[in-house]
Description:
By secondary structure, the chain is an alpha+beta fold. The chain contains three helices and five strands; from the N terminus they run E-E-E-E-E-H-H-H. The chain has two domains: 4-61, no CATH class; 73-122, Arc Repressor Mutant. It has helices at 41-61, 80-92, 97-112, and strands at 4-7, 10-13, 15-17, 22-28, 35-38. Strands 1, 2, 3, 4 and 5 form a five-stranded antiparallel β-sheet that branches. The chain is elongated and about 55 Å long.
Amino acid sequence: MKNYLEYKGYTGSVEYSSEDDCLYGKVQGIRNLISYEGDSVDELKKSFEYMIDSYLEDCKTENITPEKPYKGSLNIRIGSDTHRILAILAQEKNITINSFIKQILDKYIKADKPDKSIPKNA
């Protein structure tokens, strides 16, 4: 079961408001706030897609590059001991820490979600 929406490379949340008795959400992974709502799942999907199309059209009209969700850069805090161990293991494999961490994450994702393909150049 998916609890999110996908359209043109963008992902959106799905939430329920008991106060307003409606579904709503926002686009994830970008700085711009793009929100949408609907009274049914179908309306929510249509609103999400409309807002993405509007955002992309506005960017085109204003000659602005649209934000790419999840640029591929992630800053995490892992602690010095973990950092040291990763550095040693990466060095043993003669690769960078970033490449090593990516290999670990790709392996984990593939084991957990075998239907998810991971691009080679990602």
